[in-house]
Amino acid sequence: MAQLRWGLGVTGLNIPLYWGVYITNFVFFIGISHAGTLISAILRLCDAEWRRSITRSAEVITVLVLFFGVGSIIMDLGRPDRMLNVVRHPNFRSPLLWDVCSISVYLTASSIYLYLPLIPDLAILRDHGGKYIPFYRLLALGWRGTERQMRILHRLISVMAVLVIPIAVSVHTVVSWVFGMTVQPMWHSTIFGPYFVVGAIFSGIASLIIAMALIRRIYGLQDYLKPIHFNNLGLLLLVMALLWFYFTFAEYLTTFYGSEPAHLAVFYSKLTGRFAPLFWTMVTTCFIIPVSLLSRARTRTVAGTVVASISVNIGMWLERYTIVVPTLSHPRLPWAKGVYTPTWVEVAITLGFGATFLFLYTLFTKFFPIVSIWEIWEGREKALPEVVERIRSYMPGPTPTVENEDLYLETKETYK
After folding, report:
1. 239 occurs within a structural domain
2. For residue 243, with 0-12 CB atoms within 10 Å meaning exposed, 13-18 middle and 19 or more buried, which class applies?
3. Does pTM surpass 0.90?
4. Domain count of the chain?
5. Is the Cβ–Cβ distance between 317 and 252 less than 8 Å?
6. Fewer CB within a 10 Å sphere, N or C end of the chain?
């Protein structure tokens, strides 16, 4: 209410520091949204059978968190009605308009990608539900589970999985261009596109692990969200931690060797100046802690991956903050160095976004199954024979047959 009444004056934003916590939140939330689309879509296309228990929880994160990314932009505008100016007076040369278009397409595609695998479960709830049967009947679209319907559903899910991957990559690339297309020190960089995409996947996997641990504990889903799921996602998180360090090191190394005074001013403010505590905390939480926990099987447990994921999310928020604020604190124009300190209004709105996301996520689990029922059933009935057949197809030598397998077993018993 304070910001609605008095405007952006109640925040720590000023000239030249016109971006702060709100833009940091925007980039952070859009990054988390990659948890569902990229992870779920890639695992589906790779026929990773262990995905069946986790895809729904990942896809929900994507759809919900996008609204908070957009909400952060609205908060940063000060006057929400200014959002309409994007439609009334579009400037197609502006990366900000590209951002609006890419996020709109991403939200639409992610919503469809969430809804399609939900249809069979909605039909199950329609047939076994209570007072919400009319609601589920409307959403189930007359699903009966026939072979033709299943064939069409699988085809549509595969098409959306293929489409949603490039859309997701393009979204965070365009987000990076909002910074990279300017000539601000340490923003004008060609590496920002892949750097932001890697960071998005990194924080997305971490958020998915935290969400899985919560619903596993609260709803008693230990039989569905097993340690193997956390182990596999922990390995993915470890790979992304190494990639993140590679891109971070490359970015700062090229800045140092370039020796441009404007860039070096920002560079040293992060490494040894007033932003050094935030920068080195970011390095510790994004690289040292997760790598030390996830590189060993003994600590790559449910608890270990959750601790690493919490650390990563803290570090990735700090990374976005140390991208935004230090650069604007050292403007190229002949102004004094800017000073920015977030106020209680910005902190309260950020905490409110987090609390609202948890509420909506919990509300989704109240009305819809967070673990895909039909995919679990399908996995039990069809996946095992399919996996065996797939392994047979690429084993060396002649294509295995029942006779070949019997001969192999006899030979094995002979040489025991």
Report:
1. yes
2. middle
3. no
4. 1
5. no
6. C
